[in-house]
Specification:
alpha/beta; five-stranded antiparallel beta sheet; about 20% helix
C-alpha cells in the first residue's frame, strides 16, 4: 500500500500530470455496417475523485500528450490492462470494494471478445465526441452532478440515431440493407425503440427506494434523486432534467427542468423545457409543490406552490392577484403593488396557488394554504 501511494505521489509530481474532471473505462458497441463505434457503456465513473487510479493510467498509457485537450478517448489493449492491474495487487486482500479495480478486472476477463476504452473529460466544454457525451450522461444519471451543471451544447448532434433491441444498438442502415436476409432467416431483431439516447434503466441501477414503472419513461442522462417514483402513463423525464429529492412524477419533466424534494407532478402535467414554449429560461419547480393533473408550467416556481388541475401558467399569462398578509410574509422582498401580473413576473416566488375562477374564467393567484406531503404508504 505504501509503495502504491508513493508511486501515485511521484506520478502526480511530474510536470505534465493533470487531473481530469471525469474519467471511466467503458465497453464499446459497434455498427454492424461499417464497424464504427456507435455507443459506449460504463459500469462506474469517476468525477473529481480517484486520482490514484488515474495516476496509474497516466503512467502506463502515456497520457501526458492529452494534458491540453478538453477530452480524449483511448482504446485499451490486453497488455495495457494487465500492466495497470499489477499496480493494484496490493489491494487484493484488504476486504474493501474498489469499483475501478472490479471494472478493470471485468474488462480483462472479456478483452478477447469485446473492446474497451478509457474516456476522460479534462474541461467542461461542449463535447467533441460521442463517448464524452455518454460519460456526461452517466455523470448526470449517477447523481455526480445535477441538471444544467455540465456543458452539453451540441451533444444531440454527436449521437447516432439507433434502433435498440434490449441493450444492443443496431445501425438503421444495416437493417435496411439486410432486411430480407434477417427476416427470412428469422433473425430480425425485436426493436424496442429508435432514439439517439438509450433508456435510463439500460445503464443505471437505481436506488432501492426509487421506482420506475415503465422503462420507456426515463432517458439516460436524467437525474433521479433517491426516492423518486416515475409512474406509467403520461410521465416522462428527459436528459439533463430530473429531481432533487423524493418526487412523485406522473407528468412530464422536459429537458433542463428540475423538480425539488417533496413535490408531486400530477397525471399529465407538463413542465416546459427550454425548447418548448418558454423564453429559453430553464424551469425549476421548488420543494413541496403540487402540479395538478394536466396542468402546464412555463415559469419558475418557488417552494410550496400549487397549480390547479388543467391550468396552463405560461410566461405571458395574465394573472389576477388575491393578496393577503401570508403571501407577503412568504415573499418579503417582492412588490405586490399591482392587481394584474404577467406570470413571468411571479417567477421564483413561494407559496403561490394558481387557480381558475369558475364564475368569470380569470386566472388568479393567491396564497397556498395546503401543505403538500407525499403519501409515504404509496411512495
Amino acid at each position: 500500500m505504501n509503495n502504491f501511494n508513493s508511486f501515485c505521489e511521484s506520478v502526480q509530481n511530474e510536470k505534465d500530470f493533470f487531473k481530469p474532471l471525469a474519467f471511466a473505462v467503458g465497453v464499446g458497441y459497434f455498427s454492424q455496417l461499417n464497424k464504427e463505434l456507435i455507443y459506449i457503456d460504463f459500469a462506474n465513473v469517476n468525477y473529481l475523485q480517484n486520482y490514484g487510479t488515474f495516476s496509474v493510467f497516466f503512467k502506463e498509457l502515456n497520457l501526458a500528450k492529452y494534458k491540453d485537450e478538453s477530452e480524449f478517448v483511448l482504446e485499451l489493449t490486453k497488455d495495457n490492462l494487465e500492466k495497470i492491474l499489477k499496480h493494484f495487487e496490493c489491494f487484493n486482500n484488504d476486504g474493501k470494494k474498489h469499483e475501478n479495480i472490479i471494472t478493470l478486472k471485468a474488462a480483462l476477463e472479456n478483452i478477447d471478445q469485446e473492446r474497451f476504452f478509457l474516456v476522460a473529460i479534462n474541461k467542461d466544454e461542449a463535447p467533441k465526441s460521442m463517448p464524452s457525451v455518454y460519460l456526461k450522461l452517466h455523470l448526470l444519471s449517477r447523481q455526480f452532478v445535477k441538471p444544467r451543471e455540465l456543458n452539453l451544447n451540441g451533444a444531440f448532434g454527436l449521437l447516432k440515431n439507433l434502433a435498440w433491441s434490449g441493450n444492443i444498438p443496431y445501425d438503421l442502415e444495416y437493417l435496411r440493407e439486410n432486411e430480407a436476409k434477417l427476416k427470412f432467416s428469422k433473425t430480425y431483431p425485436i426493436i424496442d425503440f429508435v432514439d439517439k439516447f438509450p433508456r435510463f434503466l439500460q445503464s443505471i441501477i437505481p436506488a432501492d427506494n426509487t421506482r420506475i414503472l415503465d422503462t420507456s419513461k426515463v432517458r439516460l442522462g436524467a437525474h433521479l434523486a433517491n426516492g423518486t417514483t416515475i409512474m406509467p402513463g403520461a410521465s416522462y423525464v428527459n436528459f439533463n432534467a430530473g429531481t432533487l429529492g423524493s418526487v412523485m412524477c406522473e407528468g412530464r419533466i422536459s429537458s433542463s427542468a428540475i423538480v425539488g424534494a417533496g413535490s408531486d407532478v400530477g397525471g399529465g402535467a407538463s413542465i416546459l423545457g427550454v425548447l418548448s414554449g418558454t423564453d429559453g429560461t430553464p424551469i425549476s419547480v421548488g420543494k413541496s409543490c403540487l402540479l395538478g393533473a394536466n396542468s402546464v408550467t412555463g415559469i419558475v416556481l418557488g417552494d410550496d406552490c400549487v397549480i390547479d388541475a388543467g391550468i396552463a401558467i405560461l410566461a405571458g399569462s395574465k394573472v389576477e392577484l388575491l393578496l393577503c398578509d401570508n403571501l407577503k410574509n412568504a415573499n418579503p422582498n417582492f412588490d405586490f403593488s399591482k392587481n394584474i401580473y404577467k406570470a413571468k413576473e411571479l417567477s421564483g416566488l413561494n407559496a403561490l396557488h394558481f387557480r381558475l375562477n369558475s364564475t368569470n374564467g380569470k386566472l388568479q393567484v393567491g396564497f397556498n394554504k395546503k401543505a403538500i406531503k407525499l403519501n409515504k404508504d404509496l411512495h
